[in-house]
Design a protein that fits this description.
single chain, alpha/beta, four-stranded mixed β-sheet, about 35% helix, about 20% strand
């Protein structure tokens, strides 16, 4: 079973404008509501690809109830922890001439609720996958992922970490099955910007030396690079298409990679399915459907 954890879920309110005029009344030409958070995005795309999973995380208030109801209506399995105060955040995504985002802060997570999460994770069995995605609220320690991984170490659980900075660096000694830095996150970890495919490969190799088993570097319109635990290095260009959405593309890539690996045990296929899932999401207004992903996969 795959379990995803989202510390700070969100309702993503997306509005399209002809142009954003600061200080003036702006009227949307259209709008949409998505159930967001990086782990939730991974769970949603896995479900679209027919892979059973459970979404874990923290919710609060009427916005949290709306998010949970929406996910369940969409067919997702959830096991959220409810916080006594606050509201699940609303993130506003404004799409005009440029793309502007206003992300909410989210509710405070207390020690009691953190312990409930740890108890839930203690029930994971050998062979299960645990996906830790995104940031943690500012009030929590930045070694929150490291604490979880240390608690579950040596229990045969496969870790997937999609995070930045200290969260990702602290996870590496626990030998995660997969990490997926983007170019900026890779640059932050290395202390330098890798220029060219050879430099990307060397940078990914450094992260493998630091503990990661498989390193999937997402490069936006330039595609992706995979350095797998068998030493194979694969570079895929991004498929042709019109990018209309950047939110969730990296999460979809993680979901596609996991779905491909679980289906075949082949890193090449997992890389292609991950690339198709990430690109298909970038080419749509929301998270790509299974049909959209498989159609793009056939073009790779």
């Amino acid at each position: 079973m795959i379990y995803t954890v989202t510390f700070n879920p969100a309702l993503d309110y997306v509005v399209w404008l002809d142009a954003l005029r600061p200080g003036q009344l702006n009227r949307a030409s259209r709008e949409a509501l998505h159930y967001g958070g990086k782990g939730i995005n991974v769970s949603t795309v896995l479900q679209h690809l027919g892979v059973d999973n459970v979404a874990l995380g923290f919710l609060a208030g009427f916005t949290g109830r709306a998010l949970e109801e929406g996910l369940r209506e969409a067919g997702l399995r959830t096991d959220f922890i409810w916080l006594p105060q606050g509201l699940t955040r609303i993130n506003v995504k404004v799409k005009g001439t440029d793309e502007t985002e206003l992300n909410g802060q989210g509710p405070a997570i207390g020690r009691r609720e953190l312990e409930i999460l740890r108890d839930k994770l203690d029930r994971l069995a050998p062979g299960d996958f645990l996906v830790l995605s995104g940031s943690v609220p500012a009030a929590l320690s930045q070694d929150a992922y490291e604490q979880i991984l240390a608690r579950l170490e040596d229990r045969g659980i496969q870790f997937v970490v999609d995070a930045a900075g200290a969260l990702l660096r602290g996870a590496l000694p626990y030998h995660p099955f997969l990490i997926k830095p983007n170019l900026l996150e890779l640059e932050e970890l290395l202390g330098e910007r890798p220029a060219g495919d050879d430099a990307l490969r060397r940078g990914a190799a450094k992260l493998r030396d630091m503990g990661a088993r498989n390193v999937l570097v997402s490069l936006g319109g330039e595609g992706s690079l995979l350095l797998d635990e068998a030493g194979g290095c694969r570079r895929l260009a991004a498929p042709q298409g019109t990018v209309c959405n950047s939110v969730g593309a990296g999460d979809a890539m993680v979901a596609g990679f996991l779905a491909g690996w679980l289906e075949t045990g082949d890193y090449g296929y997992a890389h292609r399915l991950g690339t198709a899932a990430g690109s298909a999401t970038a080419f749509t207004d929301g998270l790509a459907t299974g049909e959209e992903i498989l159609a793009l996969l056939r073009q790779l």
